[in-house]
Amino acid sequence: MSFLDEINRMQEQTFRAIREGGCGCHKCIKARGHIAMHFVVCPICGNKRCPKANDHNKACTNSNEPGQPGSAYA
Question: What is the dihedral of CA 36, 26, 52, 74, to 10 degrees?
Answer without folding.
Answer: -90
